[in-house]
Amino acid sequence: MEENKALVRRFLEEQARGNLGVIDELLSPDFVDRGLLPGQGPTREDFKRAVAEILDAFSIISFTIEEQVAEGDMVVTKYTERSVIRGEFAGLPPTGTEENFEGIYIHRISEGRITEEWSQANTLHTTLERLEQEMRERERVEQELRVAQRIQHALLPRDLPELEGWKIAYDYRPAREVGGDFYDFLPLSDGRLGVIIGDVSGKGIPAALVMANTQSVLRAIARRGDIDPGPVLAEANEVLFTYLPPNMFATCFYAVLDPTEGRLRYANAGHNLPCCWHEGLATDLRASGMPLGLMPTMDYEEKERTLAPGDGVLLYSDGLIEAHDPQREMFGTSRMVEFVGANSGKATLIDSLLAELKQFAGEGWEQEDDITMLTLQRNRLS
After folding, report:
1. Which alpha helices (DSSP H) does 67-203 contain, by range?
2. How confident is the model at residue 287 (pLDDT cuts 50, 70, 90)?
3. Helix, strand, coil shares of the chain as percentages rounded to 5?
4. Which CATH architecture fits 2-122?
5. Domain 159-378: which CATH number of 3.60.40.10, 3.40.30.10, 2.60.40.10, 3.40.50.300
6. Of the four listed, 11, 54, 293, 377, which is most buried by Cβ atoms within 10 Å?
7. Residues 105-136 pLDDT 10s
C-alpha cells in the first residue's frame, strides 16, 4: 500500500512540475479518466491533452499533498494548490490572479500503474463560476465605458472658432477609463468669445452624465446675455448644487475674450490655474472660487488680464500635471509653468508640451486621466 501511495505522490507532484512524461510512464495504456472536464475524452491521450491545457492556463506556485489513505488497490489523496491564472481556461480569459484550490484524487492501481482516476476539485468549480461572474462584470463595465465615451465625445466641440489676430488650439486625450473633462467655445455678442474648461469628479457614466449637465447649464447661462464670468459661475453653482448627485462636483474656469482689445476677463471655480505667458515668462492666472455644486450661494472672484501681441494663455486639466514617472513623481505645475515660459514662442506649444510630458513619464507610460489643453495666443504684430 505504501508503494501505491508513493506512486501516486510521484505522479501528482511530477505533473505539478510540468513533467508530462510521467503520464506515459505511470498511466496504464487502458487508463480511464472518471473525473472529466467539459469536452474531455476518457483515454490516456485525452487526459494528457487536458493536463497540458491546465498547465498552460495555470502557473502552479505550490502543490501540497495534505493526506493520503490507501485501501486495497485504491489511493485517496487530499491536496492543496496555489496557482496564477495566466492563460484562457474553460472559456474564461487569463486574469493574472492568484487562486487557492483544494480537492481529492482517487486512483486505482494495477501492476504498478494507474488504471483509473477520479478527481474532485472542491474549489475549482466555485472559482470558475466566480471568474465567469467577474468576466461578465468586466464586460458590463466596458459597455458602460463605451456609452460614457459616446456621451462625452458627442458634447465636445469639434471645430475651433476663428478669431482674426488670434491662434486657438486644443488637444483632448481621453483616458481609457472615462473621466469628466469638458471644454467649450461660446460665440458671444460684439465678437467676444466665451471659453470654458472643466472637470467633473468621478469616472464612467455618472461622470459623463454630470459633465453633460454641467456643460449644458454653463452654455445656457453664458449665452443668455451680457453676463460676466463671475455671475455665470455663481448661477451655475446654484443650479448644480440642487441637481448634482451627492459627493459629485465640477471644477470650471470660464473666461470671456475680447479679441479686439485683447482683454481676458475670467473667474475660476476650483479649476487648475491657467498659465499666461508674456515675453518668455509664464505666470498663473489666479481667481478664487469653490468648485461648482458643493455649496449654495457662492461668489466667484473675477479678474482681468490684457494679452499683448505675442502673449497667450494655456488652460488645462489635472491629467496633465498629475501624470507621473515610474518613480511616481508628478509632472507638476512648476515644471509645466517653467516649460511654457521657455517655449511660449513656439507655434506648436501644445505638441511640445505633450512631447515633454511623454519624455518625463517614460517609455510604457499609461495615461490614467483625461488630458485637455487649450491655448489662446494673440498674434505678434507684423
Report:
1. 124-155
2. very high
3. 35, 35, 35
4. Roll (3.10)
5. 3.60.40.10
6. 293
7. 889 999 999 999 887 764 455 555 655 666 67
